[in-house]
Each structure stands twice: as C-alpha cells, then as structure tokens.
From TrEMBL:
Ranges of Acidic residues composition bias in the record: 1-14
Protein name as it appears in the record: Phosducin
Cellular component, GO, one term: nucleus
Function: Inhibits the transcriptional activation activity of the cone-rod homeobox CRX. May participate in the regulation of visual phototransduction or in the integration of photoreceptor metabolism.
GO BP terms, alphabetized: regulation of G protein-coupled receptor signaling pathway; visual perception
C-alpha cells in the first residue's frame, strides 16, 4: 500500500514519473540524451536508436519488460563512450588553461636559487634595482650562530619551490652595519618589495622548534602573506579535483 502511494506521489510530481534504482537512472539518462541532442546535428539512425532507448513503454507488457531490463546495446555503449571522451577532452582543456594562467601570472624574472651577497653595496643594489613586482627575502647570518645553517638550507629548498621570489643571504659582517646585527639578533630575516622593507624578523629561529626545516619556514612566511601561491601546488590541486570527478 505504502509502495503504491509513493509511486503515485512520484507520478503526480510535475506530471512526470520519477525512475528510481539503477535501471531508472539508466532510463532517465537515455531520455535526457535524446532531449539534449540537436535535431539538425543528429543522423536519423542515431535519433531512432536514442528514441528506442528512451521509450520502455508499459512495464506490464512482456516485450516492454524485456526491453526495459535488457543489457546495454553496442550503440548505447558507443554513445556513453563518446561522452567519456568528451569529458576527458574537457579535463585536458581545463588543465591547459590552468597552465597558461600560471605562466601568465608568473611573468617577470625567475631565480630558483639563493644569491650570496658579498658586500653592503651589493645588498643595496639588489634591493633598489630589482623589479618592483619581485619579493626579496634576505637572510642576515653569521657562521657559528645557532639556526643560521638550518635557515640557509631551508632557503635553498624554498628558492626552488618559489622561483619568482628572490632569496638572498649575506653575512652580518659584510653588510657594513655589523654593529646593528649582533649575534643577539641573528639570524634576521628582511623582506623587501618595490625597494621598501615590508617585514623584518630578528632572532627568527625563536619562532621555530629546536630542529626545523623548509616547511616550517614556508609556513611562517605564508602566515604573514609574504609568499605567492606555489605554482606546482595549484596545478596539483586542479589535477586532484579532476581525478575525483
């Protein structure tokens, strides 16, 4: 009784019957495929196949039951396979668009390694003459100071991950202002953009654990919004979304 009532409600909804279960889903797909095809672009033979697939007629009729429950035909398989090929083409197109977008967003100089600045003059020249769109991250260090070696190693990794950011390092004794960079404030990070100092962190390793790595430094800089989106991460995220579809 409940089943008959439920079926009646489904048929009354907008005057249409709703197919449920796997066979109903397949049948709904057949009907949708027929309705979505453009009359001028579909060969007559293909239209006839779609019409037959979308019209199971009455389930009380023996022939109709057989037609309703029959296995997928070769023609149906080819139609579905064609849809999958269209979907794969769309995914490839989206991936290419993402690559093109990141290439456009990543215009300008590319670096990919850590620059060792030898003098204070070279330091000033790097800050003043670099392009305004470039973020420059400078590590002021000294040999034998705790955390400086680990930070230099982290810079090497980050420079490869963020090639549009210029990572530099300079010894405090080579800056020409060694008295301002005593061992108490090292290692120090200075971040510049457009010739202006936008962030500075003294004794920066106090923000990290006893043992830290490039990922920790990356998270710290991202926390202050000092790094752009990593190119490989954005593309990988797009690929993951496509794989789950």
């Amino acid at each position: 009784m409940e089943e008959a009532k439920s079926q009646s409600l489904e048929e009354d909804f907008e005057g249409q019957a709703t197919h449920t279960g796997p066979k109903g889903v397949i049948n709904d797909w057949r009907k949708f495929k027929l309705e979505s095809e453009d009359d001028d672009s579909v060969p007559p033979r293909k239209k006839e196949i779609l019409r037959q697939m979308s019209s199971p007629q009455s389930r009380d009729d023996k022939d109709s039951k057989e037609r309703f429950s029959r296995k997928m035909s070769i023609q149906e398989y080819e139609l579905i396979h064609q849809d999958k090929e269209d979907e794969n083409s769309l995914r490839k197109y989206r991936r290419q668009c993402m690559q093109d977008m990141h290439q456009k967003l990543s215009f300008g100089p590319r670096y990919g390694f850590v620059y060792e600045l030898e003098t204070g003059e070279q330091f000033l020249e790097t800050i003043e003459k670099e392009q305004k769109i470039t973020t420059i991250v400078v590590h002021i260090y000294e040999d034998g100071i705790k955390g400086c070696d680990a930070l230099n190693s982290s810079f090497t990794c980050l420079a490869a991950e963020y090639p549009i950011v210029k990572f530099c390092k300079i010894k405090a004794s080579n800056t020409g202002a060694g008295d301002r960079f005593s061992s108490d404030v090292l290692p120090t990070l200075l971040v510049y953009k457009g010739g202006e100092l936008i962030s500075n962190f003294i004794s920066v390793t106090e923000q990290f654990a006893e043992e830290f790595f490039a990922g920790d430094v990356e998270s710290f800089l991202n926390e202050y919004g000092l790094l752009p989106e990593r190119e490989t991460h954005a593309l990988d995220q797009t690929n993951m979304e496509e794989d789950t579809e």
